[in-house]
Design a protein that fits this description.
8-stranded parallel beta barrel; alpha/beta; 12 strands; TIM Barrel; two-stranded parallel ribbon; 2 domains; about 375 residues
C-alpha cells in the first residue's frame, strides 16, 4: 500500500526497520514470538516492506526470519546484509524476497573503519548486488554514512549500483547530522542526477529524524525508512507514526494505511522493547489528547479542533479532560456533569480553589474519586 500525494500523484512506500535497526537499540532484544507478532501487526497496518533482521547472525535470528517468511505476509520481507556474498547466501536461505546491501560511502568510514579505498567499496558493492540479482532478489543498496559522503562519489556509487541491477538506494544519515533544508537540497541534487529510487533512512541524534525524512521526500525520495516509536540506535530513527501522520495531515498525502492501529502497535513495541512510551510522545503518547489548562480545556470542550490537529480516534486514542492545578471552572463544571452534579458559579469557584490547593500538595492531577470526595467534603456538607 502506498501513500500518494494528491497533487502530484507521487507515491511513497514505507519501509519499517523496527525488527532490525530498532532492535539494535542498546539493550533491546525481541523474543522470537515478539518479532513474529510485530511483523504481523506491521503487515496488517499496510506497511510496504519490513526489514526483519540480519540472517548472517545465524541461530535464533535466522530461524525467526524463516518463520516470518513462511507466514505469507502482505508486506515484502527484507533482510539486512553487509556487501558480503555469504551474508546474502544466508538471506536467500531464509526465504526473503528482498535484501538491503549495506556498505560505507563516506571517506570518514572508508578510511577509518574499512581501511580501504572508494574503488574497493564500488567493487564489493557490485559483486554483492549482481549476486543478489542473479538469485531473483529485490536489492536496496545502502549508503552507510551517506550524509557525510562526497556528493560526486555518492552519485557515482548510485550509477554503478544501477548498472549492477540494484532497485533503489538507501540514503543513510547514519549519525543524524543533517537538517531538513540541507537534506532536501542534497536529495534533490542526487535524484535529478540519477533519476533513481531513493529511500530516506534518518537518525535522531539532533531530534530531526522525522523532519529530515519528510524533507528528503520533498526533495525527491519515494521510499522512507521508519521504526515504531522511533526506536533505534542511540537517539533512534524517524518514527513510523510521526512520518505517516505528518505526510497525511501536513502535506496532504492520501493513505490507506490503518492508522487506528497505531496505539496498539506502539504499546506492544514499547512493552516488547522494554522502552517506556513517553506520555508526551508525538502522535501516540497518552498526553496527545489530554487537556488540563483552563483555556485549552474550555476550547477543546467547545470544539476539539481548537486544540487538536486531528481526531484522536485516527490513532486509537481518546480525548481526556483532566482536572489539575491549571484547570478552569469550565472543566470543573463539565467534569461534575458526568456525575449528574450541576455546579453553580459560586460552588465551581470554591471547588476550583480547593482542587488547585490539593494538586499542589499532591504534585499531580486528581483522580475522579478524589474530586467526588472533595465535593462531598466541601460543597455537600455546606448544603446539608
Amino acid at each position: 500500500m502506498c501513500i500518494i500525494d494528491r497533487k502530484s500523484l507521487k507515491s511513497i512506500k514505507i519501509v519499517d526497520t523496527t525488527l532490525r535497526d530498532g532492535e539494535q537499540t542498546a539493550g533491546v532484544v525481541f523474543a522470537n514470538h515478539e518479532k513474529i507478532a510485530i511483523s504481523q501487526m506491521l503487515s496488517d497496518l499496510g506497511i510496504n516492506q519490513i526489514e526483519v533482521g540480519i540472517p548472517a547472525m545465524g541461530g535464533d535470528e535466522k530461524e525467526v526470519i524463516k518463520s516470518i517468511c513462511k507466514r505469507n505476509l502482505k508486506s515484502s520481507i527484507m533482510a539486512w546484509n553487509r556487501a558480503v556474498i555469504s551474508d546474502i547466501e544466508n538471506s536467500i536461505d531464509c526465504g526473503v524476497d528482498s535484501v538491503a546491501i549495506s556498505i560505507s560511502v563516506s571517506d570518514i568510514h572508508i578510511q577509518n573503519k574499512l581501511k580501504t579505498s572508494r574503488e574497493w567499496v564500488l567493487e564489493n558493492m557490485v559483486k554483492s548486488v549482481e549476486y543478489a540479482k542473479r538469485n531473483g532478489l529485490y536489492v536496496s543498496v545502502n549508503g552507510e554514512d551517506a550524509s557525510r559522503a562526497n556528493d560526486d562519489f555518492l552519485i557515482e556509487f548510485i550509477e554503478v549500483a544501477k548498472q549492477a541491477g540494484a532497485d533503489r538506494f538507501r540514503y543513510c544519515d547514519t549519525v543524524g547530522i543533517m537538517d531538513p533544508f540541507s537534506i532536501k537540497d542534497k536529495i534533490s541534487k542526487i535524484y535529478n542526477k540519477t533519476k533513481f529510487d531513493i529511500e530516506m533512512h534518518t537518525h535522531n541524534d539532533f531530534g530531526l529524524a522525522t523532519a529530515n525524512a519528510i524533507a528528503g521526500i520533498i526533495g525527491g525520495a519515494n521510499y522512507v525508512g521508519v521504526t515504531v516509536n522511533g526506536l533505534g540506535e542511540r537517539a533512534g530513527n524517524a518514527a513510523l507514526e510521526e512520518v505517516l501522520m505528518a505526510l497525511k495531515y501536513i502535506h496532504g498525502y492520501d493513505t490507506n494505511i490503518d492508522t487506528t492501529k497505531f496505539k496498539d502497535l506502539s504499546e506492544y513495541v514499547s512493552s516488547a522493547s522494554g522502552r517506556d512510551l513517553p506520555a508526551w510522545k508525538a502522535i501516540v503518547g497518552s498526553n496527545m489528547f489530554k487537556h488540563e489548562s483552563g483555556i485549552h480545556a474550555d476550547g477543546a470542550l467547545k470544539n476539539p479542533t481548537n486544540y487538536e490537529a486531528f481526531n484522536p480516534k485516527e490513532v486509537g486514542l481518546e480525548r481526556q479532560i483532566v482536572i489539575g492545578k491549571h484547570s478552569g471552572k469550565a472543566a470543573i463544571v463539565n467534569k461534575f456533569k458526568e456525575y449528574d452534579i450541576n455546579l453553580n458559579d459560586e460552588d465551581a469557584s470554591i471547588m476550583l480553589e480547593s482542587v488547585r490547593a490539593l494538586c499542589i500538595r499532591a504534585k499531580r492531577t486528581l483522580f475522579d474519586k478524589e474530586l467526588v470526595q472533595l465535593y462531598n467534603d466541601i460543597i455537600k456538607d455546606k448544603i446539608i
